Amino acid sequence: xxxxxxxxxxxxxxxxxxxxxAQTFGIKGGLNSAKIILKENEEDLSEDFDPLLGFHAGLxxxxxxxxxxxxQTGALLSTKGxxxxxxxxxxxxxxxxxxxxxxxxLHLKANFGSSEGLNIYALAGPYVGIGLVGKIKTxxxxxxxxxxxxxxxxxxSNEEDDLKRLDYGVSVGAGxxxxxxxxxxxxxxxxxxxxxxxNNGEKVNHRVFQ
Length: 210
What we know:
By secondary structure, the protein is mostly beta strands. The protein is built from 1 helix and 11 strands. Strands 1-4-5-6-7-9-10-11 form an 8-stranded antiparallel β-barrel. Strand 7 and strand 8 (about 145-150) form a beta hairpin.
């Protein structure tokens, strides 16, 4: 964890320093709608998972390449995970997996400027994510008895761990910029298999709409 925190501080430092050379830099924040895709031998076991609402916040830096393209990066704290509900005559249970990642986007951005400071943009490219902390909380009723439990998510590469720490994938997005204000949407498609035990063909991937 100490090494992850050092990396986070270093990336933030790079983002601040980059403001000296970047065309623009700023603060970014907004809503996340996250879901986990769980498969075993290509069978989708996550069809009943619901999106989990969360947030993303951090710093961005943009380096111009030419009049049309620029390179955008930064350091974002981003929540990921999923929500699951089971309701029948025996159980009424809600389970939430809340995960916090440090995401570093590496995006190519196309800028389609127009009049009076309005710019329409599209972006695409890879991202890298590092799992910081996580919890899974389950509460509800089981046979009319109240139930509540909270467990920490253990990141690692061993079979006894819950999830691998390193996430990566690709992003696509679009939005508008009006002077110093940007409003946009991005979809992050996780490609890293986060399952630590793959003996039965398990696959765990993140999906996040921001």
